[in-house]
Amino acid sequence: MALFRAAFAAIRPAAFLSTQFRRTASPISLLPKRGLAGCTETGGQGLDPVVGPFEKKIGGPESFLHRFRRGSVFSVSDFTRAEWCEQQKWFDLRYSKHEQTKAMKAGTARHVELEEEVTTREKFHIKSAEDVWALKFLKCIARANQLLCNGLTRELPITCRVEGVWITGTIDEIRMSLSRSNGYPTLLETKTRVQATLPGEPQRRNGRFQLSCYKCMWDILASGKFSSQEFFDYVKLDRNHILSPEIREITAKLGFPSQTLEDLVMYYENMCGLLPRSDDQLLLRYELQEDQSLLGEEKFVYDPDLIKGQIKSHLEFLLGEREARYVPPEERWKCRYCKYASICPAGSGFTMLLLYIVTI
Length: 360
Prior knowledge:
Layout: H1 2-11, E1 27-30, H2 64-68, E2 74-75, H3 76-84, H4 86-95, H5 102-116, E3 122-125, H6 129-150, E4 152-162, E5 165-175, E6 186-193, H7 201-222, H8 228-235, H9 245-254, H10 261-272, E7 281-288, E8 294-301, H11 304-318, H12 348-359
Parallel strand pairs: 2-5, 6-7
Antiparallel strand pairs: 1-3, 4-5, 5-6, 7-8
Helix pairs in contact: 3-4, 3-7, 3-11, 6-10, 7-11
């Protein structure tokens, strides 16, 4: 494998040379159609922060994310991409930001549509890494309040520490019965399909893994294990940063006025202690992109030991403790849809090129 790596590094195909990505400031979307602070109709916020331009490199162990990305907080998508194919994830980190296909863009548009059924979106401009994180926490507080008041919320971002690393993610949908005192929130994930068929087992397994990651993170927050001190020690942000006037105005309207990033993170920490533990039964929904018709649903029971084992395994790769693994032989069909197939050590095209390099 070391020979493969050395040859691969020497090749540096022109299509994948760039490891630096231009990032420009982007407006972020913000504002649930129901009130949040007091469950009135005076406006809750639907924030959609764009992570990237201002996120600072943070502390922690040396990892591929530190080497190939500016911002190095893990995301759930880092793990789901690794679960699909660690080698493909390695190429993504080494050569390019993961690009969305046409089908992925259609799926994103559908999620925005679903979100707007329960929220009103407004645009805000961000000028600092601190404001990016402030909007993440603000959106989570607002959406959690919406869930507790109305029994439904969508696109709820969460951030917590899992297995020693910090991870962020966005839960598609959470439902909770308000008529039962012992009702647990149910986590849902909606997947859109180009073809009017249910996905195969590898895709369903990846969806179960993603939703299980959200469940794991939600329950960690609900157990009160979020520590603002540990968060600031890790991300190296200015806790005394004065929030933008827009953010301060929103927090005041929602009932938790915040002047600094630390104020908002403290509200987030307090909010976590109010969250109920989520239901162990999770739900995956599959829709046809063409008309949003329901293709099917899959209900499954959360397995905490399985998900923690999977996260630990992928962390060994993401933290640089071992090399990336390839998909098993029975799943090599994935390579037909991979943009790196011609240069991957598992592909015949790369093998022939390697043999040529070794012999010259």
